[in-house]
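To assess whether the prediction recovers the assembly geometry, we first specified each molecular entity separately, as shown.
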Amino acid sequence: MLKTMSDDHPLAILHQDYVKCVELTDVFVSVIQCKKQTASVAKALCEDFPLENLQHLKRVRSCNSKDGSLQVVVCQGKTQEQFDAVLSDVKYSCLGKPFLTKVPKLKPLTRKQFEECKLYWPVTFHENKRITKLINLSYFSEDEIHKIQSHMKELFNHKEKSKTENAALIVDPKVNTVLATSCDRRHLEHPLQHAVMLCIDKVARLQGGGMWDIKEECCILENKSIKQLEEANNEKPEMCSMQSAEQYLCTGYDLYATTEPCVMCAMALVHSRIGRVFYVFPHEDGGLGSKFQIHTERDLNHNFEVFKCALPEKK
Amino acid sequence: VHWQNITKYCNSERMDDIQQNWMVRSFNFAEEALQAGEVPVGCIIVYEDKIIAVGKNEVNETKNATRHAEIVAIDQVLKWSKEQDINSALVFSKSVLYVTVEPCIMCAGALRQVGIPLIIFGCHNERFGGCGSILSIHDASLESLGPSFQCIGGIMKERAVDLLKRFYQGENPNAPEDKRKVKKDEQKV
Ligand SMILES: [Zn+2]
Ligand SMILES: [Zn+2]
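The predicted structure of the complete assembly is given in tokenized form:
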């Protein structure tokens, strides 16, 4: 079969709000028996019964019935007795008896949700282009996809060489350079030395810090990276962020992981201000998509993009 | 077996006194962190009625944002167990952590992995808390991570809040200007 570009496009792990099905709520609706009064009735209702949390609903819709009659949202969250008094006013004389109708509770965030909403009641939709591209798999250019794939390939080569379950790699995408690689060491009597934690610490070491003194054989790539960085530094000093005082933790860096990071590692990446995360295998207890979506947690001070990638092909 | 021990421990009449005493020790390390310009959080790990590990925040010192007090102390328990030639998993399973602030989501995950059954903390952590404030990692169903743990919060919380206030009023001198304030308009996915 012919492969298209979108087959290789990483899949964004979005906030639940973008993925979930449309939720419904009840509102009272009336038929407008005299079409001429539609505008004035709708205006009056907007004043008497503003639709506080349902601003995305269009007030009036035309019915599918042959006579093309119109319906208007009267109000939400009130009992019949509460609005009967108001509706007895002469300006509402053209309204039929109100009845309950299910309408979308939240504004649509994606085109898919928009289409689903419309099945219940007409709504307004302001498309977020970035989200649309992420969903349509048209967010990355071909060149970007190629770079992501080549880093992923490097990561899996590293994993195979080190013969461990998980491996991680941190890249500075501005210079397309690998800064650190690591593999899982929790089997070596240190339960916290997950690949991601080790990788974060290696970046800290490159910045003159670090917490774990590990002399491991499995980071051959690292010396190469430092060399690359030094070269980049000589050629274009402004491009080498590593040595500059501007660099703060992992800001703007990408992390590649073979398996979805656990809750601890996911939060470690929040603390480290990582830019983006790419992984291949989801994990049922994972913190970036499966059990939790820590990268989209709105109460936290840092959010980042997470993508699920295809397993790199072996040559 | 250790769960029974904990129940015994929690039901002891001297519990308040004991907790208070150990917590006072944790505050020494939180104060040290503040002196060093770090987020003022301190902790101790108690095993068989003695302190086998202590920790304070060392994020700025190590340029590693994961160097929280709890991680420092866990490292020390691993080292101590090796020196004593005792199985570290056994030591963790019979230990109590006293920490001045509710463990964050990361540390709660770390604590489950080493299998500490009981955490006593001071104030809640409204920014990053992993034991109820933001997420409840301590008792979420996360079997692959390790056993869930029990938490007792609120011990000497006023003192913990006071320390944090003193820190945040001074601001973290090592964070770049634009990172110090929480940006509300950050792109959310
Ligand atoms: Zn992990
Ligand atoms: Zn923490």
